[in-house]
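As a warm-up, study this chain.
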Amino acid sequence: MKITYKFIFFISIISLYSCSSEPELTKDQLLKQSIEQLEQRFEARKLGEIVEYVSQNYQDDYGRKYDDVKRVIQLQLMRHKTVHIFSVIKEIQWIDDANSTVQITAAMAGKPITDLSLLPTLRADMLNFTVQFVLEDEVYKVKSASWTWATPGDFL
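Now compare it with the structure written out below.
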């Protein structure tokens, strides 16, 4: 009889623990978290961790595929000893729960960008990205991207 009560108590504790876990993220939160993780991995300059956020099915309008993008990222990391990113998500358009298109304006510099007002004084690459994301393995990964040059005004 004691074993039965201990077993029920144990099951009850496990049930309470699972109920108190963090709430599931919304698709917007998960997408933004994926973008933040991707930026942090760029700043850490770890190619293997960056490409974990690129879909194996990547293909853009220029015909580049996954391996091409991996080489481009590797070249950028070799060209810059440090990378600091300041970005603004301008718009998110959901195609469905697993696919979205995101407009991101980003500045990449060798020094930390702590304030938007510093952009005109820094030597930074400023870009407007249109990125298509797809949900794979509970992470939104880049499945296509294009970019144009940006100005400090694009961050507003």
